[in-house]
């Protein structure tokens, strides 16, 4: 390592650490208060830095929110050949029941729900849910109504996340994960089978 490299390395590490601290603080603030209820000074104070660094590293509060709301699909999800039940179980395990993201906060989808009153956030949420998750899920259903059944699975999983992490319902947050996964698997299996309710006008 040259002398110049040696002198620059701590600065690079400091920039990376500061940027990471700001993202962690932003995730917590946006998750708790939403976009409009969160100020850049509050985020900076939580991270222990000056607010001007938010604009230096991210350009704006909006760009900081966009990066805070980014979430990678857990490794192994969407594997070729996996059916709806396998994909749903992976999402329940890794997203709904999984540990909070590094630095705290909620899954990015739930973070966006907190700020869904803003049109641009609703558009981003629609893109993430419909184009990223539901389209993949629908491709794994065979037969008719694939898109409808995929949306029903999505509603189930997203609703579970809201009940568990936003509403704080009395049972789901403390429920046995294996039992939750088993019950979800049964519901998804019914949708995968494509069963329809009995005709109430029939015999």
Automatic annotation (TrEMBL):
Q: Which UniProt keywords apply?
A: DNA-binding
Q: Which InterPro entries match?
A: Homeodomain-like_sf, HTH-type_TetR-like_transc_reg, HTH_TetR, Tet_transcr_reg_TetR-rel_C_sf, TetR_C_16
Q: Which residues form a coiled coil?
A: none
Provide an example Pfam family for this protein. TetR_N
In this protein, which residues make up the domain named HTH tetR-type?
16-76
- According to the entry, DNA is bound by residues in 39-58
Provide the protein name. TetR/AcrR family transcriptional regulator
């Amino acid at each position: 390592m040259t002398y110049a490299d040696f002198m620059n390395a701590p600065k690079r590490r400091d920039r990376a650490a500061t940027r990471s601290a700001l993202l962690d603080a932003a995730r917590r603030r946006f998750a708790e208060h939403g976009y409009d209820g969160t100020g850049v000074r509050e985020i900076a104070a939580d991270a222990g830095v000056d607010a001007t660094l938010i604009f230096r590293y991210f350009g704006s509060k909006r760009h900081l929110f966009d990066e805070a709301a980014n979430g990678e699909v857990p490794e192994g999800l969407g594997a070729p050949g996996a059916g709806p039940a396998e994909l749903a179980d992976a999402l329940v395990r890794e997203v709904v029941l999984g540990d909070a993201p590094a630095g705290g906060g909620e899954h990015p989808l739930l973070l966006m729900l907190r700020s869904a009153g803003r049109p641009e956030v609703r558009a981003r949420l629609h893109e993430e849910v419909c184009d990223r998750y539901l389209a993949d899920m629908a491709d794994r259903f065979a037969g008719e109504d694939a898109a409808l059944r995929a949306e029903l699975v999505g509603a189930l999983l997203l609703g579970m996340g809201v009940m568990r992490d936003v509403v704080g319902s009395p049972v789901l947050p403390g429920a046995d994960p294996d039992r939750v996964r088993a019950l979800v698997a049964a519901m998804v299996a019914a949708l995968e089978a494509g069963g329809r309710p009995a005709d109430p006008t029939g015999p």
